[in-house]
Amino acid sequence: MMMKMKKTLTAALALLLTLSALPLHASAQRVLLKDVARVQGVTTNQLVGYGIVTGLNQTGDSTSVVFTSQTIQNILQAFGLSTSSQNVRTRDVAAVIVTANLPPFAHSGDNVDVTVSTLGDATSLQGGTLVLTELKAANNLVYATAQGPLSVGGFYASATGAGGPNSILQNHVTAGRIPQGAVIARDMITNIQQDQSGFSYVLTTPDYLTAARVAQILNTKFGPGTAHANDAETIRVNLPARYAGDDVDFLAQAGELPLDADELAKVVVNERTGTVVMGGDVTLAPCAIAHGNLSITIATNNTVVPAAPFSRTQPPVQTNTTVTASQTGTRKLIYVSGAPTLMQVVRALNTIGVSPRDLISIVQALRDAGSLQADVEII
Question: What pTM does this model have?
């Protein structure tokens, strides 16, 4: 066993030394301007509204959801009908929240998709129809109205009520979509249409070097003084005189300009899923790594306790839970010389069987020790 472990460690270190001799990746990649920058103010706006879905097959809100019955009364009053909460039955109706994204440059009469999700205790929206619902933006103005049949992409059926033993559920049926279900009622006015003198580019990933390169290629293409980098994220563009009133032509030509976008040394860690995403140019200072695997086992054993003689009651069940923790595997100390990229080190660690979750702990420890030359973002 010891000989096998020594051979594995030797192979890992040999692989690490081999990879260290490989040339490092370039710190920039060739991209188009439109791929790394957007026009400030040209963005999607979020809309939200409250409404009800009708036509459900006994899968709507229960009578305990007070606002559903109140909504039904308000709708009936709008049609000239008067009723009380005692006369309202809500099992075929569900209160819902309706959301949509309003694209930039949207005009009245355009259609967008909407998402509908339950607000009460409805068990399914299958077969339902959304009643006319106003969708508002953050400024409390109505920008669209939504209505139509829902598509839930699944089904729910039960013979004993919600969550009963005789039921079947496929996918998530308490939320659905209405393709092209909202009609835009108000035109969107963006900053680029209001400011005729120019606009600002905003980088998707702020970086001083990339911002300077964007300003440089714009000045080279359209003349000196066209662009100026205000900071690591914003580049101010002054429209040349020949493009006055023709922003679209300028943006079309500028968006196709190639540039070298600088890559940031960054590692993104998702501890919930055990995912590690890293850039190929992340480097390490000389360090030594040792990591042990902690194994936690939880076992549950249900034991039936004998009932008293001649007793008609069900015998009680006693639950016994055992929790054990053990250190598995053999701790190995690995010396990593400077200069190799983190990708190369990960390949070497994978050779000796380091799991993704172990790698997350190692990456964070390397950052705390000052050996990892990169930003670590935990999501």
Answer: 0.64
